[in-house]
Amino acid sequence: GAGVSQSPRYKVAKRGQDVALRCDPISGHVSLFWYQQALGQGPEFLTYFQNEAQLDKSGLPSDRFFAERPEGSVSTLKIQRTQQEDSAVYLCASSLEPRQYFGPGTRLLVL
Amino acid sequence: AQSVTQLDSQVPVFEEAPVELRCNYSSSVSVYLFWYVQYPNQGLQLLLKYLSGSTLVKGINGFEAEFNKSQTSFHLRKPSVHISDTAEYFCAVSGLGGSQGNLIFGKGTKLSVKP
Question: In this predicted model, what pLDDT tens digit does every residue of A57-109 receive, in sequence order?
Fold first, then answer.
């Protein structure tokens, strides 16, 4: 079956531009996580959904970051007014607990 | 709060040699433990996990890890590495599911296998 997919795979944005990153989880997976992986670092937790409910957003680095999952399946991570420090790979994972299945990530470069 | 320390940022090794990648964690609650592998420009692939039971866990590609509660360690081992094992390896912990299920990762260990 299909795994977790993310789009776009690569995104170049000018500083100040808004971006939207999409995650298509594995069908039927209730839990969905977003992580940010800076260059040379391990992934860091951003936010967690159970179905459409965002139960934990403690990892979002600023109020410029917003995530949603309105119908409990596809999720979108939005970054407003991008800054250079937002450059990273954004990973999405869906979960059949306790195992998480990761997508290939979206590599965001903010110039 | 939980944390993970991977003691080696880079490990060079020759093909067919054994390798150990070290991981220590800290947590005030029970945790699950994981090792993931990341090949260049790809997502994370689960190698193995420890949930409960036997402390020696076998994973894919010939890797195994041993959970040591007293030393709070979960070191990854392979008796004989291949060139294709060259990748970055991440140790991670999580709470026991639900809103505690997010993964806390170490900074990674780059394994470089030389011919």
Answer: 999 999 999 999 999 999 999 999 999 999 999 999 998 877 889 999 999 99
> Cβ of B51 and A50 within 8 Å?
no
Residues lower than pLDDT 70 in chain B: 97-99
Interface of A with B in 72-111 (CB under 8 A): 91, 93, 95, 97-105, 107
Strand pairing partners for B77? B20, B64
SS3 B98: helix
Closest Cα of chain A to B17: distance in Å? 26
Is the CB of B110 inside 8 Å of chain A's CB atoms? no
Yes or no, beta carbons of B102 and A56 under 8 Å apart:
yes
Residue A1 — pLDDT band, cuts 50, 70, 90? low
- Across the interface, whether the CB atoms of B44 and A45 are under 8 A apart is answered no
Q: Is A84 helix (H, G, I), strand (E, B) or coil?
A: helix
3-state SS, residue B100: helix
How many alpha carbons lie under 13 Å from residue A4 in its C-beta half-sphere?
Answer: 30
Pairing relation of β-strands A106-110 and A10-13?
Answer: parallel
Q: Around B107, how many Cα atoms within 13 Å sit in the side-chain half-sphere?
A: 9
For B72-105, write each residue's pLDDT tens digit: 999 999 999 999 999 999 999 988 766 678 899 9
- For A66, A91, B74, the CA distances from B23, given in Å and listed in that order, are 33, 22, 5
Q: Are B59 and B42 in contact (CB under 8 A)?
A: no
